[in-house]
Write a structure and sequence with these properties.
- The protein has about 260 residues and is an all-alpha fold.
- About 20% of the residues are buried.
- About 75% of the residues lie in helices and about 0% in strands.
- The longest helix is centred in the last third of the chain and has 45 residues, at about 215-255.
């Protein structure tokens, strides 16, 4: 066999295009649900812009309502995913014993919230019939469980983010806080949780005491934007990993032909 010279195994790599990340992103129900949430609250925010004509206000209002209904459909059967996460907690070796009970409680709150969310949704579609009093009670219980879920997430997120940050610096969580303060990702996560918590609490209070629709739109937009940015980054990292694996396979095929 004729010698062809040294073969370079340094395959060129590239960052995935935005269109590739977006297509990868919308392939997941959770991503589509967060994108629908972003459109819903941006529409609610825009419908309250001063000076907007009535036709556009109604258009944004209908879009917001349609996205809200779409999110309920996208959350349908998500209960199975929460069950899988709960099952994973029981067998996780990385879960600290002192936070395991809280993680189980948080997952149970999520499961119960989704169950009630499905019941309320089916009642709105008139597949289930409830009296108005019982229907309003179901909605209030659902919002209360949502509040409990977000409150339970705060210590779990704190422990998880501090553990990841301290491992990168090869130190303890307490020492990391003394040296660097709270991680930026933890602060961003706090903002997202407090936004979601505000929306859940707002659903508990009587309608005449609730915050303005424009403020609801702003809070929801902030929360959805943070969630979408996090998902975008996660999907981009996942896509880059898949591309690197494909390059590795190409390297092995080339070696097989040499």
């Amino acid at each position: 066999q004729e010698y062809m010279g040294e073969v370079s195994m340094d395959f060129p790599t590239r960052q995935p295009f935005a269109s590739e990340v977006f297509i990868h992103l919308i392939g997941y129900a959770e991503s589509r649900q967060k994108l629908a949430m972003l459109v819903q609250y941006v529409s609610k925010l825009l419908q309250n812009v001063p000076g907007l004509d009535e036709a556009k206000q109604l258009a944004f209002q209908r879009l917001s309502q349609n996205m809200s209904e779409a999110r309920k459909g996208l959350r349908f059967m998500k209960l199975a995913e929460e069950w899988e996460k709960l099952w994973r907690i029981f067998f996780s070796l990385q879960q600290f014993p002192r936070t395991r009970k809280l993680a189980v409680f948080s997952r149970l709150c999520s499961m119960l919230y989704l169950l009630l969310d499905h019941i309320v949704w089916l009642a709105q579609l008139q597949f289930l019939i409830f009296s108005n009093t019982r229907f309003q009670t179901l909605k209030q219980v659902k919002n209360m469980i949502s509040v409990m879920r977000y409150i339970s997430e705060l210590p779990l997120v704190t422990v998880d983010q501090l553990r990841k940050a301290s491992r990168r610096e090869h130190t303890t969580s307490f020492q990391y806080i003394l040296n660097y303060g709270l991680p930026s990702q933890l602060l961003i996560k706090y903002i997202e949780i407090f936004c979601n918590l505000s929306l859940a609490i707002n659903g508990l209070v009587p309608k005449q005491n609730r915050i303005r629709s424009s403020l609801v739109g702003l809070i929801g937009t902030v929360s959805a934007s943070i969630a979408c940015k996090r998902l975008w980054r996660t999907m981009g990292d996942e896509l880059r990993l898949q591309m690197s694996r494909n390059i590795s396979k190409s390297q092995l095929r080339l070696l097989g032909h040499l």
